[in-house]
Amino acid sequence: MFVMSEIEHTLRLPPHLLNRPLNVAIKGELESLFLDKVIGKLGLCVSVYDILSIDGGFIFPGDGASTYTAKFRLVMFRPYVGEVISARLEESTKDGLRLSLGFFNDIYVPVPLMPNPYHIEPDPEHKNGIKWIWEYMGENYPIDWTDEIRFSVHSVNYPPLPIEQGKDSEQKDSEEKGLRQKDIKPFAPMVITGSLDADGLGPTAWWV
């Protein structure tokens, strides 16, 4: 689930940080640049583990900051396909489930990867919510909000940044634009698709 990635990056060190030990100042800048950010194909950065080398210290004309090239290692959240992880329920709709690890919330279990057979019911405790219920040997096994849920990683994707299709949208009525934006989900630079359709997966209470 967590891996180490070695990266080289050139960065500016502002003058007000030059009174600090170089390693401390560089690490602080690297954390502001990479912490909680997704790096394509590498995953979500959860920590700057260590700094391997620092070169440079050049001050370019007209710039009071020093420029350094640092080589360092990051701890990345990047689960592998087939890995089994425990999460909590974040959202339950007719399209499936959204799960959360606390520090990462873009985990989706679509309908084809839900345990089969199943049926769904309205969730009276959550407006527009759906309760998914697995049917097994004549018994019903619901997925509740308090459950710890084990899922298998089906895929990990890094969607490209969305590109605006022209400027026509700027000329549309502001109310219509507001309604349209309400339906658009925030862009997720990293998306995990999970599966519950196998023995041992789903709420841990099912398998006690």
UniProtKB/TrEMBL annotation:
Domain RNA polymerase Rpb7-like N-terminal stretches: 8-64
Keywords noted in UniProt: DNA-directed RNA polymerase, Nucleus, Transcription
Purpose of the protein: DNA-dependent RNA polymerase which catalyzes the transcription of DNA into RNA using the four ribonucleoside triphosphates as substrates.
Main location, first listed in the record: nucleus
Any GO CC annotation of this UniProt entry: RNA polymerase III complex
Name of this protein: DNA-directed RNA polymerase subunit
Keyword Signal: no
Top-level lineage group: Eukaryota
GO biological process assignments: transcription initiation at RNA polymerase III promoter
Localization: Nucleus
Pfam families cross-referenced by the UniProt entry: RNA_pol_Rbc25, SHS2_Rpb7-N
The organism of origin for this protein: Olea europaea subsp. europaea
Residues in RNA polymerase III subunit Rpc25 domain copies: 83-207
Similarity comment text for this entry: Belongs to the eukaryotic RPB7/RPC8 RNA polymerase subunit family.
PANTHER family: DNA-DIRECTED RNA POLYMERASE II, III (PTHR12709), DNA-DIRECTED RNA POLYMERASE III SUBUNIT RPC8 (PTHR12709:SF1)
